[in-house]
Known about the structure:
CATH class of the largest domain: Mainly Alpha
Helix content: 55-70%
Structural class: mainly alpha
Number of domains: 3
Shape: flat
CATH architecture of the largest domain: Orthogonal Bundle
Distance between the termini: 66 Å
CATH superfamily of the largest domain: MetI-like
Amino acid sequence: MSNTNKPRRTAQETQAIVTASLRRRYWAERRFRACGLTAIVAALTFLVYLFFVIFSNGIGAFRQSELKLDIYFDPAVIDPAGTRNSEDLNGADYQALIRASLKKKFPDVEGRMGTRELSRLVSGSAAFELQREVVDDPSLIGTTRTEWLLASDAVDLLQKGHIDRALAEAERPLNDRQLGWVDQLSSEGSLALKFNKTFLSRGDSREPENAGIWGAVVGSFYTLVLTLLLSFPIGVASAVYLEEFARKNRWTDLIEVNINNLAAVPSIVFGLLGLAVFIGFFGLPRSAPLVGAMVLTLLTLPTIIIASRAALKAVPPSIREAALGMGASKIQMVTHHVIPLALPGMLTGTIIGMARALGESAPLLMIGMVAFIVDVPKGVTDAATVLPVQVFLWSDSPERGFVEKTSGAIIVLLAFLVVMNTTAVILRKKFERRW
Length: 435
């Protein structure tokens, strides 16, 4: 009886209720879209700020201050006996040539202390540059040649505006007298910022002005190429066997569970495994790209196997049935039809795995690739380091000059990653097939 006595809503009341409900739902939808858009804008803002900080700090690493000096290759200093013996040429005091050139430019400098302060304007590696030139071309002895030599780290920081001239003399790496010499050289055009070929052509150094990234680039190249050659065939073969040939039983289920679990294992565990097995048991050399590649192969295999299996599952069953119906064997069906269609997805998994391998440093630290490496590696068994470890080493250095070197190394690492991923995407597009 209570339902029959309840007053019925009019059409206008019903319409008002529906309109209010739609308004609330539309408002909730707009609020949700606004939250999503805000999150995207915030993420892009932080990303742009991150790249701005990296590039603003790292762009200075690609420029280096150099001093122009007229060097007289004095035979009395380089080769007093006139024998042109390579041992005599290598053992000569080339720093004396630089001091003589500086004192000629600043004749008012007297005393041992003044000469020492003047010599500190030039990098300690400048003498080795002159040594290499003379050893390569002994005919320079007895001639005068204009040379652009690396300036010291303090002069380079001053030229780039990282030293405040207003600070007290005791708080600056350059005293007032040295600032006057730098200003005079700048006004004469004998001090300039030039493209830093050293950064892109040499290995690591204790001095910021001599530190280069080329050794780490070569080490990363060797490591990643070996990682790709080891991980891609093994990962694809494992995925094909598990997906196309293996019987579904408790053993294959156990293998699948372990593969999925290995994808979530911390990377440093693989480093400990490599240290114990490859170095401790097999006796392979420490800090070598070969060992680093084997460790990174273990790290990337689960990612490649999982992605390759997903790509194989995405191939329609009709492809397999048609191939078998035409008389192809199972191996022919897999190799001629399934794998070519799944290859783009496999390459995608490989890209993800290699990108992770490129950015890993923890497992490589465990196998000794954190060592201070000056020489550029000539092979996969030579001592080497990689770009992420080089960034770690430079970020821990106390000198101000290594700050821009760190950001510059990150820029090189990002460029390395972009080139690698672009190549992989091009290959993926080339092998892509539609059905």
